[in-house]
Each structure stands twice: as structure tokens, then as C-alpha cells.
Design a protein that fits this description.
With 702 residues, the chain is mostly helical. It folds into two domains: 208 residues, Methane Monooxygenase Hydroxylase, Chain G, domain 1; 380 residues, Growth Hormone, Chain: A (Up-down Bundle). The protein contains 31 helices and two strands. Strand 1 and strand 2 form a beta hairpin. The longest helix is centred in the N-terminal third of the chain and has 46 residues. The radius of gyration is 29 Å and the shape is globular. The two termini are 26 Å apart. It is a multi-pass membrane protein. One of its GO terms (cellular component) is plant-type vacuole membrane. InterPro entries: MFS, MFS_Domain-Containing_Protein, MFS_trans_sf, SPX_dom, SPXM_SPX_plant.
Length: 702
């Protein structure tokens, strides 16, 4: 555990030492302000004014130096351009090589400047956080918003990097011109699809992308997956990720995610018919659908623990459990056994390896593509959710082979059993178990050394460091201890970094705002499960819909997931604060639930479809924003271990599904004519509770 002040001191470039923000001085000032306010010698309003002025001065010093360095880099590029023109007129291989190395030197110096910007941005964020924590204000939001929105903002110089973009463009274009392309020299503007192969340019582009604190669709989807990142990740850990990364293994994890979601929703359109064919009530479909979620509550825990030791074995077990579960589900028809049907679904739930899928992406995928992998996890889930009902709609055939019946009720089980069997074969052939830390240490040579010049070593360290998520965007946290806290024992330091060892430990790490966000997650999953699971019963009772009609409706709902995430991630989240979107989405979910009730007028298809669509879409928006917030504010101790943040969110959502499916079955005792209102009423109450809780904690949400 490293205090940020010491970390900043260690990372500073000696020649630039006077231009970094004076974090140590500002930390002392915060402590001094606290003593003055406590003693009554200073008014809080004066403290805010003085602290703002101090921050403005520190930022101005840093920004002006950054602009000065950009000017020096631009001057060097202008000089190199003259040499470049002369070389193009009289090509000389040795001069071309020398010129390319000169451009790379400028690129390496630009990387150092980006590290300079990064460290100062982290220091600014941490001192604002320390100030808010000490005085209980929300000053950080006010300061950043007022400075960033001003037309002469110096913060904009830091976050938009306009000058940096021009320097990167010049280096990229000139290096590309110096590459041989069949004797001619093409511009990157003429052939924009050609990849930039130079590692320095790629490192700069990566650094700029990670330093830019803006929301994109890909980043939004990645946060939607709630794959928690560890607080401190060293370059050596990133190297381990690169060595152990196996693309086919990642595809197999995403395939497991997709097939599991298909398996979850493929039975929804036919579950009521299957229940009635076995002599049970149509509303028993709630128990049939929910039994898979019941088993998942327990399987998520042991799969999360199992992934501490292996990824391959849990996936094999998952495939076998799902294969057996689907066989039992399909055979229940000929056995005329509702017990076998439920047992099959329970067995399927015991094969839920979503905790392993999340953990694999978090631990075994390199940082450079972890965002894409996380987005792939969400996309695979959404695609599976849409394909499940659509596939059920296609399986409207009936035939017998020997004594086995194949119809719309049993075919989902047979199809998924075959799919999991093929997946198991692919898994055994292609999956590569990642090396664990102990294995890597045993295989490494402690005496191995690499010779390089001081400049090469420095530039490599800079490039390696910038391949990690920069601290400003990834939520990387360094310790905020005051000087007196630095005397804590190493054991206490380790305790504060140790993962939670139980649900009780994990719960104690949750702040009130995080608990509210988990309540919101429970609410939206409950409302969505009610809509999806009872759709076949409700639509057949009120509208006489066939299985195909229900399948089309559910597939259309599933297909809205990715477009809605594109809209929110690319546009809406850039125009409004996350907490504003959060509260607005909750209100829209409330409206959708309210208009779904069957009260005074005859229930119609447009009312059901429109209100259901409004509620589902708003819930999807709410889920994305809520998980995005959770991924940023959960304790760093929940990024690793068995009881991690991903497991907590999975358990909250799974419990919501269990309660929702139980509500459908219990509501069935009131009769199918009262089922709709009986199940919507708890949704409405929970939604109102989550809105009230959000309003109470609104100012503490980021």
C-alpha cells in the first residue's frame, strides 16, 4: 500500500519537479482548514474560496507548463520536417532510419508528458476527494463542473488534449510516410484503413484514449458487465495477462454466457403449456422458470470460489450439469413427472457459470482488450436473451422417435442438451487453463536479466505503464493516508487490501448509496422477470396468443437491449449525469408498471405491448447506468476473491428473479383473471421504494 504523496514523488521527472501540483502542501492546507473551522477562526465559506483559489493556481501552473512542452515538441517536429523533406528528395536508408528514430524520440517524450498530465489529474481528483471527506461537502462536483464548463477553462486543456492530438497526428503521419510501400510514400489521410504499426504511436494512442475521461458505448457496455478491476495493477501483472491470454478460451467463456441465457429464456413461451400437460396449473410456470434461478443463488457462490483455483473444471462441470438438466427437462413429458421437470431446471441452475465468465475476463484478459471483452459479455447475454424465445418460436413441430416425444414443450430441452454436448467437446479441445501466479513464479528464472540503455529502459517503463488503465478513468485508487497514517503496520495495510471472506464482510463494505443501487438492481430485475415469465399466461388468457406470438414478442423485447445501450452509452450519458438518468429511468419504469394494470377498461394488446415495452426499455437503461455507477463506487476490496462485486450483483438479480417467479405461482391461486394485477402490485411497491431511496441518497450518487 503506497501513500499517493510518496508515489507522486517517486514518479516525478526531476527536471519537471516544480511544475507538478503540490499535493503535499494542499494536503496540509486541508488539515489546517479543518483545525481552523473546528476552532471557529475561519468561516466555511472563506475556506471554500481560499481552497478554490489554491486549486486554480496549481492547475494553471501545470497547464501552462504542459502547453510549453507541447510547443517544444512542435518545434522539434518542425525541424524534423525540414530534414524529412530533404530525405524524400534524396532517399538514403541510413538517414531514413535515423529520422524515424528521431520521430520516435519525440513520441517517447510525448508519452512522458502524458504521464505528467495523468499524475496531476490523479492528484487533483484525490485532493478534492480528501476535502469532501474531511468536511462532508460535495465540493468536487461543483469545482469540476464550474471549471470544465467555462469557455476559458484550463481543465479543458487537460481533458481534451487538443495540442496532444496535433502532435500525435504529426508523428503518426511522418512515421507512416517513412515506411516503404512498394517504393511509394502514402499519407495516412489517403489510406486511413492502413494500421499504424509503430509501437510508439500505438502506445501514445492507447495513452490518450485512456486519459480521456469520456463515456463511449464500449465503455458503457463494459461497466454494464460489472467486471470489477483491481485497484493497483503492476506492469508485471499486465505482462502475465499477455502471456496467459488465450483467445479461444475467451470465446468459450462468452459462448457459455450466450448458451446459458438461451437456456434460461427458451422455455418461457412454452412453460405454461408444459406445466398443464403434466397436470399442473398454468401458473406453475413461475416455479418451473424460477427453479433455475433458485439453484443459481447457490451455484454462483461455489463457482466463484472454484474460479480461485481453476477455470476449466468449473466450465466442464457447468456443461455437464446443463446437459443433464436439459435431458431431464425433455424426458419429463414422457415420464409424466412434474418433479422430473423441476429437477431438470434445478440442475440447469446448478450449472450457471456466469461468475466464472466474469472472473475469467477480469483476471485472464489483457488490459488492452478487457473493455472489449466485457462489452462482449454483455452483448452475448443480450443476444442469448433474444435468441431463446425466438428459437422456441421455431420449434413448433411434433413427432415421436420410439417412445420419445418431440414437441414444442420438449424440443427446447433436446436442442439445448445437444448444444451443451457440442460445447463440452469444443471446451475439452480448445480451452487452455491459464497459469496461476505460483506456476509462473516456479517457471521464471530469478537470475534472468535484460540489458538495455538507460533511455531504452525509461521509455519501455513509460510505454508499459501507459498500457495499464490510467488512474483517472479506471478508478485506480492509491492510499490517501496523512503522514501520521504512514506508520501503520504492514499487517494493517494488508488487511485493508484483503478481499471479503463472506457475504457479511462484503455487506459491511457497502456504503448506503451502493446498497440503494443494489436495491434498484433488485427492483428492475424483479419487474423484468414478472413481465417475461408471466407473458405466456397473461397473453393467452387476455388475447389468445399462441406460443409463436409470445416468442416473437419476447424476442423483440430482447432485441431492444443492444440498441438501447448504444443510445445511452453514446449519447444520453454524455448529455446528462448518471444519477439524473438513474432517477428518470426509475420514474419511467414506474409509469410502465402503472399502465400495465388491468383496472377499469377492457385490457387490449396495445396497452399490454406499449406499457411492457416502456417498462422493459426503461429497466434496461436503468440496469446499464446502475451497474456503471456500481463499477465505480464499490469498495476496491470487492474487486477480487470469492465474494466480489460481480457476485453481489449476480446474487441480487438472481434473488429478484426467484421472488418474482414465486410471486407468479402464488398469484395463480387467486385465478388467472387476477394474476396480472396481483404480480404487478409488488413491482409497483418495490419501484416506489427504490425511487424514494434514490431521492434520499441522490446527492451522494456520482
Amino acid at each position: 500500500m503506497v501513500a499517493f504523496g510518496k508515489y507522486l514523488q517517486r514518479k516525478q521527472i526531476e527536471e519537471w519537479r516544480g511544475y507538478y501540483i503540490n499535493y503535499k502542501m494542499m494536503k496540509k492546507k486541508v488539515k489546517q482548514y479543518a483545525e481552523q473551522i473546528q476552532g471557529g477562526s475561519q468561516h466555511p465559506r472563506h475556506v471554500l474560496k481560499d481552497f478554490s483559489r489554491m486549486l486554480d493556481t496549481q492547475i494553471e501552473k501545470t497547464v501552462l507548463f504542459m502547453l510549453e512542452q507541447q510547443g517544444l515538441l512542435a518545434g522539434r517536429l518542425a525541424t524534423l520536417r525540414e530534414t524529412h523533406d530533404a530525405v524524400l528528395e534524396q532517399p538514403d536508408i541510413s538517414k531514413i532510419v535515423e529520422l524515424r528514430e528521431s520521430y520516435r524520440d519525440v513520441g517517447r517524450d510525448l508519452l512522458q508528458l502524458l504521464v505528467f498530465v495523468e499524475l496531476n489529474a490523479i492528484g487533483l481528483r484525490k485532493i478534492l476527494k480528501k476535502f469532501d471527506k474531511r468536511f462532508g461537502y460535495r465540493f468536487a462536483d461543483y469545482y469540476v463542473k464550474t471549471r470544465a464548463d467555462h469557455p476559458y477553462s484550463q481543465l479543458q486543456q487537460v481533458f481534451k488534449h487538443v495540442g496532444v492530438g496535433a502532435v500525435v497526428g504529426a508523428i503518426s503521419r511522418n512515421l507512416h510516410e517513412l515506411q516503404e510501400h512498394e517504393g511509394s510514400f502514402y499519407s495516412i489521410y489517403d489510406q486511413p484503413v492502413l494500421p499504424l504499426q509503430d509501437p510508439v504511436v500505438e502506445a501514445i494512442k492507447t495513452a490518450v484514449d485512456k486519459l480521456t475521461n469520456s463515456t463511449s458505448f464500449l465503455n458503457f457496455l463494459a461497466q454494464h458487465a460489472l467486471i470489477m478491476q483491481d485497484d493497483l495493477q503492476t506492469p508485471s501483472e499486465d505482462t502475465i495477462d499477455e502471456r496467459t491470454y488465450h483467445f479461444n478460451s475467451l470465446l468459450l467463456n462468452l459462448g457459455n454466457t450466450f448458451l446459458y441465457m438461451v437456456n434460461t429464456y427458451i422455455i418461457v413461451p412454452t412453460a405454461d403449456d408444459y406445466s398443464m400437460s403434466l397436470g399442473a396449473a398454468a401458473t406453475v410456470c413461475g416455479v418451473v422458470i424460477g427453479s433455475m434461478a433458485v439453484a443459481q443463488v447457490f451455484s454462483s457462490v461455489y463457482f466463484s470460489a472454484w474460479s480461485n483455483k481453476s477455470y476449466f473444471k468449473p466450465l466442464v462441470f457447468s456443461s455437464i450439469a446443463l446437459f443433464i438438466g436439459n435431458l431431464m427437462y425433455a424426458l419429463a413429458y414422457d415420464a409424466n413427472s412434474i418433479f422430473l421437470l423441476l429437477l431438470g431446471r434445478l440442475c440447469c441452475g446448478l450449472g450457471s457459470a456466469r461468475a466464472v465468465n466474469r472472473r475469467y475476463i477480469s483476471d485472464c484478459v489483457p488490459l488492452r482488450i478487457r473493455m472489449q471483452a466485457s462489452a462482449g459479455f454483455v452483448s452475448a447475454s443480450a443476444l442469448g436473451m433474444a435468441c431463446g424465445p425466438a428459437l422456441a418460436g421455431l420449434l413448433q413441430i411434433k413427432f415421436k422417435i420410439y417412445k420419445l416425444t418431440f414437441n414444442q414443450s420438449t424440443l427446447p430441452g433436446w436442442v439445448m442438451a445437444v448444444a451443451w454436448l457440442f460445447y463440452l467437446v469444443w471446451l475439452c479441445i480448445s480451452f487452455k487453463e491459464p497459469l496461476r501466479d505460483t506456476e509462473e513464479q516456479e517457471g521464471s528464472n530469478p537470475n534472468e536479466t535484460t540489458s538495455m540503455t538507460d533511455r531504452e529502459e525509461n521509455s519501455r517503463a513509460v510505454e508499459e505503464g501507459l498500457r495499464k488503465p490510467l488512474l483517472i478513468t479506471s478508478g485506480l485508487k492509491l492510499e490517501d493516508e496523512d503522514e501520521e497514517d504512514c506508520d501503520e503496520s504492514e499487517e494493517s495495510a494488508e488487511d485493508s487490501r484483503r478481499p471479503a471472506n463472506s457475504f457479511g464482510d462484503a455487506y459491511r463494505l457497502l456504503t448506503p448509496s451502493v446498497k440503494v443501487q443494489l436495491l434498484i438492481y433488485f427492483m428492475l430485475k424483479y419487474a423484468m422477470e414478472i413481465l417475461l415469465s408471466e407473458s405466456s399466461v397473461v397473453t393467452s388468457y387476455y388475447f389468445g396468443w399462441t406460443t409463436s406470438s409470445v416468442a416473437i414478442f419476447l424476442a423483440c423485447l430482447g432485441l431492444t437491449v443492444l440498441p438501447i445501450n448504444i443510445l445511452v452509452g453514446s449519447y444520453i450519458s454524455n448529455m446528462f449525469e448518471d444519477r439524473q438518468i438513474l432517477l428518470t429511468s426509475e420514474i419511467i419504469v414506474f409509469i410502465g408498471i402503472l399502465f400495465s394494470f388491468n383496472l377499469f377498461v377492457p385490457y387490449t394488446v396495445p396497452q399490454y405491448v406499449i406499457s411492457g415495452l416502456v417498462m422493459f426499455v426503461a429497466a434496461e437503461v436503468l440496469e446499464g447506468v446502475n451497474l456503471s455507477l456500481l463499477s465505480r463506487v464499490m469498495s476496491s476490496r470487492l474487486s477480487k476473491g470469492t465474494y466480489n462485486g460481480g457476485l453481489l450483483s449476480t446474487e441480487a438479480g438472481t434473488l429478484a428473479r426467484v421472488v418474482a417467479d414465486a410471486t407468479i405461482t402464488l398469484g395463480g391461486y387467486l385465478g388467472r383473471n387476477h394474476l396480472l394485477n396481483a404480480t404487478l402490485l409488488p413491482s409497483l411497491v418495490i419501484c416506489i421504494g427504490s425511487i424514494v431511496a434514490t431521492c434520499c441518497t441522490y446527492n451522494s450518487l456520482y
